[in-house]
Design a protein that fits this description.
alpha/beta; globular; 10 helices; 17% strand
Length: 264
C-alpha cells in the first residue's frame, strides 16, 4: 500500500482525463499530470519519473499488463541484494486480445562484478526490451540519461543501467509484453511511425545509429566505473561502430544530400 502512482496523460483524446481525475480525487496516492499536447514517449516517460522521490521506481506503459506479484517479488530481490540495480520477472508475449503467443527469455540476468562485462553482455543479448518495466533503484536511474528522444532509446537506457550494478531475474512469469500491428515497437523501420512515437515535434528522425552510438559513449564517460573498464568499453564501442559502418555511412550520406537539397 506504500506507493505513489504518477499518471502522465500525453494529451489523450478519449475519456482518460475524466477517469484519472476521478481516481485521483478519491486516492491521495494517485497524482495526475496532463500534457497540453503530445510530447512523444521520451518526454512523457521523464514527466512520470521527475516528481518521484521513492527509493524504487518502475514505469508502467499503457498496454502491457503485469502479474499481481511483480512489485512484491522485485522489491524483495532488491532488498536482499544491494548490488542489484534492476529486478525483473520472466516475460510472456501476448496478442492484442491478451492471448499468450510465447514465453520470452530475456537472457539478461547479469551477475558479473565487472561493469564492462555486464555492459557488453547486455548489449550482446538484449532483444525485446522488457526490463524497463521491472523495478529500479530510483537514485541510480536518476544518474542516467533516462529515455532519449531517438529510436530504441529504451535499449540504450537499459544497457547504461548495467554500468551501475547487477540485474536480477526473478524466475517467475511477472510481465506480459503485448505485440500486435498497432504497437509502437512493431515496425522499427517505419520512420514516420517512430517519429510520431518518440518525438512528434521533430520533422525527421535522422542519424539514429550515430545518435545511439554517441549516447553509449556519453554513458560510459559519465559512469562511476574504473578507468580500466572505460578503456575496455571504448575499444568495444569502436568495434561496434565498425560493425555498423554501413548504416552509419548511409545516414551520413542522406544528411548531406538533404542539406544540399535545402540550400537556396
Amino acid at each position: 500500500s506504500d506507493f505513489t502512482l504518477f499518471v502522465a496523460d500525453n494529451a489523450s483524446t478519449d475519456r482518460t482525463e475524466e477517469i484519472c481525475r476521478d481516481y485521483a480525487s478519491r486516492d491521495s496516492r494517485i497524482q495526475y499530470i496532463r500534457n497540453p499536447k503530445n510530447l512523444g514517449a521520451s518526454k512523457n516517460y521523464s514527466i512520470c519519473f521527475n516528481p518521484a522521490r521513492s527509493r524504487y521506481f518502475r514505469w508502467q506503459n499503457a498496454d502491457d499488463p503485469i502479474e499481481p506479484r511483480l512489485i512484491e517479488l522485485c522489491l524483495d530481490a532488491l532488498e536482499k541484494h544491494p548490488d542489484v540495480v534492476l529486478a525483473y520477472g520472466k516475460t510472456r508475449v501476448i496478442d492484442e486480445h491478451g492471448h499468450p503467443i510465447e514465453d520470452y527469455d530475456d537472457h539478461l540476468d547479469l551477475k558479473s562484478d565487472s561493469p564492462s562485462q555486464r555492459f557488453m553482455d547486455c548489449m550482446k543479448n538484449i532483444g525485446l526490451q522488457n526490463l524497463m518495466y521491472g523495478l529500479i533503484r530510483r537514485d541510480v536511474l536518476a544518474r542516467t540519461a533516462l529515455l532519449g528522444n531517438y529510436v530504441a532509446a529504451d535499449i540504450n537506457l537499459i544497457i547504461e543501467l548495467s554500468l551501475y550494478g547487477k540485474f536480477h531475474e526473478v524466475p517467475v512469469h511477472l510481465f506480459n509484453r503485448r505485440m500486435h500491428p498497432q504497437a509502437s515497437s512493431w515496425e522499427r523501420s517505419n520512420a514516420e511511425r517512430q517519429r510520431n512515437f518518440w518525438d512528434p515535434s521533430k520533422r525527421k528522425m535522422i542519424m539514429q545509429t550515430w545518435r545511439s552510438m554517441y549516447e553509449f559513449c556519453k554513458a560510459v564517460s559519465r559512469a562511476p566505473i574504473p578507468f580500466r573498464d572505460k578503456r575496455i568499453l571504448a575499444a568495444h564501442l569502436l568495434r561496434r561502430a565498425y560493425w555498423h559502418k554501413g548504416p552509419m555511412r548511409d545516414e551520413l550520406v542522406n544528411v548531406i544530400k538533404y542539406g544540399l537539397l535545402k540550400r537556396p
